Amino acid sequence: MKRAGRICLAALAAFAIGGCGAKVEPDKNLIADHGGEKKVVNLFGPMEKSKPNAENAARNAFDRTIAIAEERFGLTVEYRTYTAEDYTEKTYDDVTLDRARNNMDDLYLLNPDTIQILGEEGRLLDLSGLDSAKNLRDVVKIGNTVNGKLVAIPQEVVAYGLFVNKDMFDRYGLQLPDTPEELMECCRVFKENGIETPIGANRWWLENFVFAQAYAELYNGGNTKAEIDALNEGRAKYSDYMRPGFEYLQELIDKGYIDREAAFTYEAIDGEGPDFLAQKTPIVMAYWGAANVETAYGKPDFEMQVIGFPSSRGQMPVMAMSGYGISVDAEHLEDTIQVLDTILSDEALEIYSQVNKVISPSKNVEEECIPALKPLNDRIQENVYVLGSNASMKMEQWGNTCIVVRKLLGGATVDECMAELDRLQEEALGLN
Questions:
Q1: What gap in Å lies between CA 244 and CA 213, rounded to an integer?
Q2: Which of 27, 39, 44, 263 has the lowest CB atom count within 10 Å?
Q3: What's the predicted TM-score (pTM) here?
């Protein structure tokens, strides 16, 4: 579980956490409490309050929602954060766990693995009684519920999909793929027509292929709770669900459709992005927000569409959850509850979603997406998705699966990867 904390997801939500594994020196970098009588709520997260004229839209959007709460309740939200220096010492998750366990803050922005750990330890308040919780999409409730308690809520839902160059598909008379077999055939055609690497990949996001194939039926077949209960009780094995996805990735690698060595070292977007934008690679994978940001894929010189990952149930969005959690022993508990309920209100989420063009956790807040995102958004609006992070699963999903996929990229066999998943499940269930 601790290793899984190296894979940051909140980075893609509100504030772009400054590097998984970033060095943290909390004593030097945290904002000190101010004395006096003023009301304060202490928030620990991977951000600092925006400076005037700052151009970080996500931070500005968050600051605007915080300003509503500060004005409404006559208090100040103090941002406590860290300074990223390198990738060798404590991670954001490591420090978050230390601080939460020592009750050092009121409110935390949490990655999926820390939501799960702190929820299991009973350190997070049940948020299901918040007024804003009544408006949440089911996917948010499912992803952030631990032992029947809703322990975290995000300001946006992160959705992953395949970013495709529609012009290149049209050039070779190809339809956008729905199933794993159709994607494999598209890759064959691209390869035979001189496209050296049909799928640009990085070391973080290939697990989405696995999740889409592993859990298409689990989340969309009408038997979700029973199947998760079987996994949590050890009556079913994660490896049985995930084997087809790992075998599929191995086939893509063996046929040269994914460059194993490049994917093993590439950072997300920075690695495979240039070839995609230069129309050398027709397919990459990324999260919703990357389609809106010009520094990522927001301004390509071709028609881009974002679709779900191939599965037995067609194009499948993969959803992941970060979220805000409140310490059960928060020093300023009532004020913190009011702040969180305010920034998660439909009023505040409307502002946040308008600025960032993201999927709101509230079912009442809908922002018009850009045309490129419509295929992915259509599936989400149909309530078709799989979760890449789910706090109700005893074995943490996002980080652990990413690590095992990296073992595959490093040369491990599918059987060795399945054995590692079995070991991780036994560890999570306390069976070894």
A1: 7
A2: 27
A3: 0.83
